[in-house]
Automatic annotation (TrEMBL):
Start-end of DNA-binding region: 32-51
PROSITE patterns: HTH_TETR_2
InterPro entries: Homeodomain-like_sf (IPR009057), HTH_TetR (IPR001647), Tet_transcr_reg_TetR-rel_C_sf (IPR036271)
Record keywords: DNA-binding, Transcription, Transcription regulation
Domain of life: Bacteria
Source organism phylogeny: Bacteria, Bacillati, Actinomycetota, Actinomycetes, Propionibacteriales
Pfam families: TetR_N
Start and end residues of each HTH tetR-type domain: 9-69
Protein name in the entry: TetR family transcriptional regulator
Record-linked PANTHER family: HTH-TYPE TRANSCRIPTIONAL REGULATOR YJDC (PTHR47506:SF1), TRANSCRIPTIONAL REGULATORY PROTEIN (PTHR47506)
Amino acid sequence: MTRRHRPADETREHVLEITDRLFYNNGIHATGIDQVAREAEVAPTTLYRLFGSKDGLVAAYVENADQRTRAWFERATEDAESGTDAIRAIFDALGDNTREDDFRGCACQLAFAEYPDPDALAHQLSATAKQWVVDRFTLHLASADAPADRKRAAAESLALLVEGTLASAGTLGPDGPARQARPLADLVLDSLER
């Protein structure tokens, strides 16, 4: 195998692209460092130099997935005129996102399932990613004319809908229960106005 010389930051990004595909499609524990190195066309020692360990590579994978989700949220809401418009846009985009051919569910959910130990860095990073979603909905609901506890409950309900949609679409497809996400989000938002 002929290896291409790249700068370290470019090599790191290339390895993460390969890792994203392998970990997402095959599972983290089912994918060894040697397979990642082979498909990325780098030496295993390069992976250890860049990430320290497989746990370091997994952490980078989860962080990368989290950053993509955050960027996705921003793109979905960039034209929204209000917080509730932003939330509706998120659920519209979520419906489109779950229709991708290779959709298996949320990468952070999948990592969380493979790392149930709360002390595992992948577990902690996945939990942080999920908390960010709750916080983002809380931010979008900040200007709603409702008591703070109801807004918080609504944000948590919306986050739960996202989680359920991602899990359901990954297992039962986008035309199963996941198709109810937007109408349910509308019900949550409408309940704040009562």
